[in-house]
């Protein structure tokens, strides 16, 4: 018997310039300022699987380029917030943790 999982990823901009953060597959783009740290949370399907990957237990993939970072979220939803817990963005209409099933 599986259960929905929660995965959390911290992202920090340790550079001196703004960094473009893109959350895929929703293509949501945000500018991270230097010294900012954000938290990306995603939830798995009810059976514990990550719908966006065929390779098993991989809730996230991160692709880095010189001035941008792309986070591929392999769960059903994403919740982006700062380290204070204040929401920045989300795509949570399929979020199992909020009782909404796809
Ligand atoms: Zn969720």
Looking at this protein, list some descriptive labels.
0% helix, 46% strand, mainly beta, four-stranded antiparallel beta sheet, four-stranded mixed beta sheet, 102 residues, binds zinc ion
Word description of this protein:
By secondary structure, this protein is mostly beta strands. The chain has one domain (6-93). Helix content is 0%, strand content 46%. It is built from no helices and eight strands. Strands 1-4-7-8 form a four-stranded antiparallel sheet, with no helix packed on it. A hairpin with a 2-residue loop joins strand 5 (60-65) and strand 6 (68-73). The chain is globular. Residues 43, 77, 79, 92, 95, 97 line the site of zinc ion (ZN).
Topology:
Blueprint: E1 6-12, E2 19-24, E3 28-32, E4 37-43, E5 60-65, E6 68-73, E7 78-82, E8 87-91
Parallel strand pairs: 2-6
Antiparallel strand pairs: 1-4, 2-3, 4-7, 5-6, 7-8
This protein binds zinc ion.
Q: Spans with pLDDT under 50 lasting ≥5 residues?
A: none
Helix content: under 10%
| β-sheet strand percentage | over 45%
Strand order, main sheet: write it out: 1-4-7-8
Bound small molecules, which ones?
Answer: zinc ion
Chain-averaged pLDDT:
92
Number of domain modules:
1
Largest sheet: 4 strands, antiparallel
What is the approximate shape? globular
Distance between the termini: 20 Å
Topology, number of strands? 8
Helix/strand order:
EEEEEEEE
Query: How would you classify the helix and strand content by structural class?
Result: mainly beta
The helix count comes to: 0
Rg: 14 Å
């Amino acid at each position: 018997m599986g259960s929905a999982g929660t995965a959390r990823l911290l992202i920090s901009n340790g550079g001196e310039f703004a960094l473009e953060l893109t959350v895929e597959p929703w293509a949501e783009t945000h500018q991270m300022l230097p010294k900012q740290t954000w938290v990306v949370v995603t939830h798995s399907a009810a059976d514990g699987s990550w719908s966006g990957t065929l390779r098993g237990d991989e809730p996230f993939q991160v692709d880095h380029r010189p001035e941008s970072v792309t986070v591929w979220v392999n769960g059903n939803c994403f919740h982006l917030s700062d380290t204070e817990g204040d929401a920045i963005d989300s795509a949570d209409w399929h979020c199992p943790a909020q009782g909404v099933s796809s």
